[in-house]
Structure formats: C-alpha cells, structure tokens
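TOKENISED FOLD:
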Amino acid sequence: MRLDKFICHHTGISRAEAKRVLRQGMVTFDEQVVKDPGFKVSNDMEIELNGQILGAVKPRYFMLNKMANTLCSTLDEEYPSVLSDMDLPHTKGLHIAGRLDVDTTGLVLITDDGQWSHQITSPKKACMKRYRAWLAEPLVADAEHQFTKGVQLHNELELTKPAILERITDTEVLLSISEGKYHQVKRMFAAVDNKVIQLHREQIGAICLDPELSEGEWRELTDQEIESVWSK
C-alpha cells in the first residue's frame, strides 16, 4: 500500500493532509524520516506518525445486519448511513460491497478491500445472493418455473438470469439470484403480477447473516468468510 494511503487508512485524514505531514517530516520508518507519498508499506513494517506506531496494512471486513430506513452509503443523507452506528475509529476508505434499498433489511458486507468487493459486485463473477421476501398476493402456481427460465423485467431487453425460487408459503419465499439489477427482486415479482411488501437479504456467496446479530449490529468477518469470496 502507498504510504499516503496507509496514513489516511489509519488516521482518517485526507490524502492532501497525509502528504502535508510527510513533507513536514512527521513520518518515520526504522527511525528514518520518510517523505515519499509513494513509499510502499507492507504488514511487517512499523510506520510511526509523531512517534506513534500506526496499525498494520491489513484490510478490514465487516458484516452488518442492516435496519430498514438506513442508506447503504458512507454519508448521512436523507436517511442515516449504515456506518453511522458502527463504533469504528474511522470509516474513511470503507465501502459497501453490494448495496440494499433503503427499506430492505439484512446482510450488508463492508470493507476497504476493493479487489475483494469486486468479487461480489462484478456481474462477471455472478455472486449468488439469497433474499427472503414477503408478498402482497399469493404466488402464482408456476412462478418457480418462470424464475428458473428467467423473467422479463419492465424496460429490459433480455430475460433475467435463471433464479432459484423456494416457496415457504404462498406469500413468503426465498429467492436466490446472481445479478444485481436496479430493484431487481421487486421487479421480478412485479413481472409475475405481485408486489414485495418486505425484503430481507440472508446470504451473499457463502457468507450467511449471523443469527446472533440483531438489526443494526455488526461484527468482523472470520478468516473463513473472507477467504470464501476468493474460493467460490
């Protein structure tokens, strides 16, 4: 990781401020002042800022049980950001790997590892996500077959990719999809003349929402969960 980015990551200051403290000789490695913003930092290095050792380069990975009426955003806007209630020393550099609508609850993954999140969000990776949906009307009899073939969304030229629909009751279902089109789950049920009244994400790839997490609670991912994104 570049030294200026490393400083930003551990202090929350801007890239411009990081370069300023470098110019002022406030950063040292192995008791030597380092002023080059592009200096490469690895996990076995001890970088000091004003005599204080900064942490390791190791990226951060979290799961959050998202509440309704919160935004998958790093900034508070009309609704509070999902990061608002996370008691972290700094959130600069963190982003959401797979966003949810403001009224949708459930599993959200948060990281500052761009390559890792790309494995989840890139359409080419076809990462499976499972949702639990509650519907306004009883599900039509052949819905499972229609979803397996793909459904025609409004204003879309191609059918959705095959999806797995499991009927819990006629108005409660599990849906697994490998795409992330705008409002896709809601639009898929609209295509079979129904309406989603509540939506909850339970799984992304091999990572399942921890049942011990209440709404709004979060925890760090385990090494196994982190690695599962690469091994899928």
Q: What stands out?
A: The radius of gyration is 22 Å.
